[in-house]
């Protein structure tokens, strides 16, 4: 287990909160509730890095970003890397 997880703000929260089902209003509200927990998390950056780089999570809220936001961030980072070459 990754050492950062021991300090995660979500440690005692139902994991289902971080995996909203669907794209309607209830799922959006649920994702925002999960992101609110992430905003106060001392290991938010480590969680996001783990989700994007180490385990390549494709669903759920990790490090304060949902799957669409993580895909967008990856795309922007990739574009910056290409421009920097």
UniProtKB/TrEMBL annotation:
- Does the entry feature the keyword Hydrolase, yes or no? no
**Pfam families, per the entry:** Whib (PF02467)
Q: Which InterPro entries match?
A: 4FE4S_WBL, Whib
Q: What PTM annotation applies here? A: Upon Fe-S cluster removal intramolecular disulfide bonds are formed.
Q: How is the cofactor bound?
A: Binds 1 [4Fe-4S] cluster per subunit. Following nitrosylation of the [4Fe-4S] cluster binds 1 [4Fe-8(NO)] cluster per subunit.
User: Which PROSITE patterns does its entry note?
Assistant: 4FE4S_WBL
Cofactor(s) in the UniProt record: [4Fe-4S] cluster
Q: Which residues form the 4Fe-4S Wbl-type domain?
A: 9-72
Task: Provide the protein's localization.
Answer: Cytoplasm
Report residues binding [4Fe-4S] cluster.
10, 38, 41, 47
Q: Which domain of life is it from?
A: Bacteria
Keyword line: 4Fe-4S, Cytoplasm, Disulfide bond, DNA-binding, Iron, Iron-sulfur, Metal-binding, Transcription, Transcription regulation
Q: Could you confirm whether the keyword Iron appears in this record?
A: yes
Q: Which HAMAP family match?
A: WhiB
> PANTHER family of this UniProt entry?
TRANSCRIPTIONAL REGULATOR WHIB1 (PTHR38839:SF6), TRANSCRIPTIONAL REGULATOR WHID-RELATED (PTHR38839)
Function noted in UniProt = Acts as a transcriptional regulator. Probably redox-responsive. The apo- but not holo-form probably binds DNA.
**Family note:** Belongs to the WhiB family.
| Protein name per UniProt | Transcriptional regulator WhiB
